[in-house]
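QUALITY CONTROL LOG
STEP: pairwise intake check
CHECKER ROLE: data steward
CRITERIA: each record must contain a sequence immediately followed by its structure tokens, with no blank fields

ENTRY 1 OF 2
RESULT FIELD BELOW
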Amino acid sequence: MSTESKSDFWQQHIDAWKGSGLSQTAYCQRHDLKLSTFTYWRNKQNKGRRKLVPVSMPVQDAPVELALPGGIHMQLPASALEQTLPLIWRLIREQA
């Protein structure tokens, strides 16, 4: 089976699992799949997908609150976003 075929195979199972309401373990048992392989492909498929949230830019002096991973919340002026966001993005990537 080619890598592309494997990727499609696992993506179909990942999508079916998400809609199943089952735990990963239960889904894999029901479909005779190895849990570690399922987890590997789920992580591999998710790596290329970033969760982006659409935003609208407030007035330059208005405060903006950022909710970051780990429960961190930051409040800073909108005018600081251009300098701050690339730094935050880099730090998050380094932690992953």
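ENTRY 2 OF 2
RESULT FIELD BELOW
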Amino acid sequence: MLTATYTLVALSVEQASVRLSLLSFQKYMRSTLMQQNSMTLSQLEYACENLNTLYQACHWRKTEMYLIPALRDATERADHLLDELNRLNQAALTSIRLLQDKLGALADVRDEQVSEVCDSIDTFCASLLKRLEKEEQELFALARNAIAGETWFSIANQLMMHDKHLDEMKRSGLPPAEAAQVTARRRALPGGETDDGQISIPGLQVLPIVKLEEAPSRPVPRPQRQSSRDDVIMK
């Protein structure tokens, strides 16, 4: 079971990175936005952009890409837990949509609307943090007992190939976010093969920690809608 232990430790490191980014943005919201009586449109756009980045980072973790599919194939005992994780994920996605719906309809956000925005951000962060917690405490334990040894070897190989491709992209001079995007498209398959399908996938690695300061006053361009699989996610 050494391979399973190695794999779960590697996944836990990624979990900790995403958790830290969620906690950082939640702290920014509570210490800055919640103290304001109004919120500019650029601040709302800034919040939406960060929530979308956090959501995509959580969605495209190695746990999602490699461990959960293997667990789903290994046992039906995980179905109830996976359904619960999906509900938490949906709650986070609904929070993003609520904020996006406000964009373009408001010149600024005031009083009770500030509270609504902060509640949506808090719900988003709390939902994904709860999901990460349940994965650590329940999903990993279930996977350790249900997944066979040869499958753990395959998952570990996928993780190593993923990290190898990421290092190659970084050495080529690509910015970290772009390098992670290319790496995610080159997912390792059983037998050491790779999948170079042209899927636009957001970065999987460590997110920059959100600084605890007021969002920039200059207008923030709305993020371009990504194509392919992201369109399905955000619809």
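INTAKE CHECK: passed for both entries
DESCRIPTIVE NOTE, ENTRY 2: The beta strands are 38-40, 108-110, 187-188, 194-195.
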